[in-house]
């Protein structure tokens, strides 16, 4: 019995050592793997960007969906709305909500190519709180990226403010631009009356590249300012006052950026094709 007891006790000690040491060995192995990952060169444990604030703040708006941006502070007096796509058409409704059932500004935006001509406009938001609502009214196959910022907002230049011209109700004005003009400033304003207008960017006869249908309840308190991208040649901005004759408005349309590298020389293989309609 004494020998049997000693053998069982020895086996128990051996099994206890095995049970007690195995978790320690596994734990040390796991700790070594984590330490190896943490010490791996070039790997940032905070994520791919390192700083989450450095990432793009744009939000993807799927077709048929709605996104809102709310600003409770009355110090936010204007915001800039930027919409873009990956080359597909863009069709959106943008509204400014101030209080229940109050929409002092709204617009309908269409862009043929949201990558080549992204939409950028400034919405006046005096006397907060205010909410910007952006709805993608296109199909589900046409999402776009939306971004609303309240800092570093674009402002019209002195030339744009000084060259404003009156457009009577029901009238229109056209502004052709040189091929060297890459973008155009558009400023619409009234003397305090409602503002109803349509802004069109044409490139060729009846070829709308961008259309903005705008309504503002007070064109003096909430003027409209946007920047239209105008790549290529033959760009014409057409501004139509869709209000009755009792509601005139002023419009300033001037170049925003000019491409000094644009060449006026003929390009072989461009718009003219030898051997096309003309015979030899």
Can you give me a brief rundown of this structure?
This protein has 2 helices and 16 strands. The chain is α+β, with helices and mostly antiparallel strands and 280 residues long. The radius of gyration is 31 Å and the shape is globular.
Structural description of this entry:
- 15% of the residues lie in helices and 39% in strands.
- It is built from two helices and 16 strands.
The rounded Rg comes to 31 Å
What is the percent of helical residues? 10-25%
Strand content: 35-45%
User: So what's the oligomer here?
Assistant: single chain
Number of helices: 2
| Mean pLDDT level | 80
Record keyword descriptors for this entry.
39% strand, alpha+beta, eight-stranded antiparallel beta sheet, 280 residues
Ordered list of secondary-structure elements with their pairings:
Elements: H1 2-38, E1 59-61, E2 66-71, E3 78-84, E4 90-97, E5 105-111, E6 119-124, E7 130-136, E8 144-149, H2 158-162, E9 165-167, E10 172-176, E11 181-189, E12 195-203, E13 208-216, E14 224-229, E15 235-241, E16 249-258
Antiparallel strand pairs: 1-8, 2-7, 3-6, 3-8, 4-5, 4-7, 5-13, 6-14, 9-16, 10-15, 11-14, 11-16, 12-13, 12-15
């Amino acid at each position: 019995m004494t020998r049997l007891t000693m053998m069982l006790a020895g086996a128990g000690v051996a099994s206890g050592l095995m049970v007690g040491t195995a978790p320690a060995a596994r734990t040390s192995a796991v700790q070594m793997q984590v330490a190896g990952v943490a010490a791996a060169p070039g790997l940032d444990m905070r994520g791919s960007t390192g700083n989450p604030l450095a990432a793009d703040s744009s939000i993807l708006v799927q077709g048929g969906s709605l996104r809102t941006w709310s600003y409770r502070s009355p110090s936010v007096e204007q915001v800039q709305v930027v919409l873009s796509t990956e080359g597909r058409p863009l069709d959106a409704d943008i509204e400014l909500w101030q209080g229940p059932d109050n929409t002092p500004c709204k617009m309908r935006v269409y862009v043929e190519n949201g990558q080549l001509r992204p939409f950028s406009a400034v919405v006046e938001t005096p006397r907060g709180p205010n909410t910007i609502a952006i709805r993608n009214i296109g199909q589900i196959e046409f999402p776009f990226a939306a971004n609303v910022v309240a800092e570093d907002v674009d402002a019209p230049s002195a030339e744009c403010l000084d060259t404003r011209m009156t457009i009577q109700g029901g009238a229109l004005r056209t502004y052709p631009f040189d091929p060297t003009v890459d973008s155009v400033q558009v400023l619409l304003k009234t003397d305090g009356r409602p503002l109803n207008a349509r802004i069109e960017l044409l490139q060729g006869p009846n070829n709308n590249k961008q259309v903005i249908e705008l309504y503002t309840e007070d064109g003096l308190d909430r003027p409209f300012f946007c920047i239209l991208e105008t790549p290529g040649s033959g760009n014409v901005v057409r501004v139509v006052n869709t209000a009755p004759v009792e509601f005139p408005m002023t419009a300033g349309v001037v170049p925003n950026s000019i491409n000094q590298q644009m060449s006026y020389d003929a390009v072989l293989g461009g718009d003219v094709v030898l051997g096309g309609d003309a015979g030899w």
